[in-house]
């Protein structure tokens, strides 16, 4: 596939990780791409200094009043118009040497792909855990209730990405918004269980994928998930598959039920979080909100009694 871009965003607080990230970009076996970097409240000189230099890139400058979504919308819209495809990587993570080459190959027959990630700590040491779609589960089955297509492990064909844009300014979960729209429009999805990224775990992670989970986190993330479904539903879905739209609405109703029966009831929330932590699983993103294995705790009034 010709005309490939690689996109990341840098922001205050990511500076300690940029040297490792930039080094991993320089080590790619496939160097036939154009690097794009969005600057979210960080200037070019600070970003270059933290990276240690040596990377040529197209810089998308932040503007007064930008939200994380509006910056990414501006960058991705330009990329989708100029390239055949884009590989998305987070600037606090580390690319394995074949990340770009593998993404390019998979995009030859798929519209949206993602890869497995190894969890590493702040210093980059392995935590002996892998983020992946469970064996035997198709990537289409992950959506719309959870997400495996993040801004660090995903690649889009541009024709698909253009259909998923624009990203509303209020969107916080940009990756899930884009993946859900792609799924609704019938995109060919693929999840590669080969690990191609190191996924750094630190205090600034918006979405933790390993326990222990806290009550505050579940409360906060339930609000994020509720907002996600509202924003997807309010976007232009004229071309969406009706059956998948019905699945989306059912998932949204379940989250509202979970909010009313668990999050709004402190005693039930405490029981839910204790049960969630006892599962000892590495979850797909947002699976800890209305976790399907704990449906008995929130799907009926008897479970919340």
Task: Throw out a few tags for this protein.
single chain, globular, about 40% helix, alpha/beta, Spore Coat Polysaccharide Biosynthesis Protein SpsA, Chain A, about 15% strand, about 300 residues, 2 domains
What do these coordinates show?
The chain has 305 residues and is an alpha/beta fold. It folds into 2 domains: 4-200, Alpha-Beta Complex (Spore Coat Polysaccharide Biosynthesis Protein SpsA, Chain A); 215-304. It is built from 10 helices and 9 strands. It has helices at residues 15-26, 44-51, 68-82, 99-106, 139-142, 158-164, 174-184, 215-234, 242-263, 266-278; strands at residues 4-10, 34-39, 58-60, 85-88, 94-95, 112-120, 126-131, 154-157, 189-200. Strands 1, 2, 3, 4, 5, 6, 7, 8 and 9 form a 9-stranded mixed β-sheet that branches. Helix 2 (44-51) links the parallel strand 2 (34-39) and strand 3. Helix 3 runs antiparallel to helix 6 (158-164). The radius of gyration is 19 Å and the shape is globular.
Layout of strands and helices, then pairs:
Layout: E1 4-10, H1 15-26, E2 34-39, H2 44-51, E3 58-60, H3 68-82, E4 85-88, E5 94-95, H4 99-106, E6 112-120, E7 126-131, H5 139-142, E8 154-157, H6 158-164, H7 174-184, E9 189-200, H8 215-234, H9 242-263, H10 266-278
Parallel strand pairs: 1-2, 1-4, 2-3, 6-9
Antiparallel strand pairs: 4-8, 5-9, 6-7, 6-8
Helix pairs in contact: 1-2, 3-6, 6-7, 8-9
* CATH classification class of the largest domain: Alpha Beta
What portion of the residues fall into strands of 2 or more residues?
Answer: 15-25%
Oligomer: single chain
Which shape, going by the Cα principal axes? globular
Number of helices: 10
**Poorly predicted parts:** none
The total domain count is: 2
> What's the count of strands?
9
* Architecture (CATH level 2) name of the largest domain: Alpha-Beta Complex
């Amino acid at each position: 596939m010709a005309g490939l871009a690689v996109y990341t965003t840098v922001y205050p607080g990511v500076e300690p990780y940029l040297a490792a990230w930039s080094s991993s970009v320089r080590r790619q076996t496939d160097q036939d791409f154009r690097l794009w970097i969005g600057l979210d409240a960080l200037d070019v000189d600070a970003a270059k200094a933290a990276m240690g230099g040596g990377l040529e890139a197209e810089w998308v400058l932040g503007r007064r009043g930008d939200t994380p979504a509006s910056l990414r919308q501006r960058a991705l819209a330009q990329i989708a118009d100029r390239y055949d495809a884009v590989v998305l990587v987070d600037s606090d993570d580390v690319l394995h040497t074949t990340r770009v080459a593998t993404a390019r190959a998979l995009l030859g027959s798929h519209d949206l792909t993602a890869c497995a990630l190894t969890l590493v700590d702040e210093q980059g040491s392995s935590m002996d855990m892998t983020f992946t779609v469970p064996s035997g589960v198709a990537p289409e089955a992950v959506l719309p209730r959870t997400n495996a297509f993040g801004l660090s492990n995903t690649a889009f064909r541009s024709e698909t990405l253009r259909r998923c844009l624009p990203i509303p300014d209020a969107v916080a979960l940009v990756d899930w918004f884009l993946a859900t729209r792609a799924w609704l429009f019938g995109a060919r999805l693929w999840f590669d269980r080969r690990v191609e990224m190191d996924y750094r775990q630190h205090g600034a992670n918006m979405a933790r994928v390993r326990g222990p989970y806290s009550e505050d986190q579940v409360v906060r993330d339930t609000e994020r998930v509720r907002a996600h479904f509202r924003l997807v539903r309010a976007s232009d879905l004229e071309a969406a598959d009706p059956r998948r739209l019905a699945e989306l609405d059912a998932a949204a109703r379940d989250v509202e039920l979970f909010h009313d029966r668990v999050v709004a009831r402190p005693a039930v929330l405490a029981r839910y979080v204790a049960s969630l932590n006892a599962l000892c699983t590495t979850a797909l993103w947002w699976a800890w909100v209305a976790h399907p294995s704990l449906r008995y705790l929130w799907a009926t009034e008897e479970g919340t009694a």
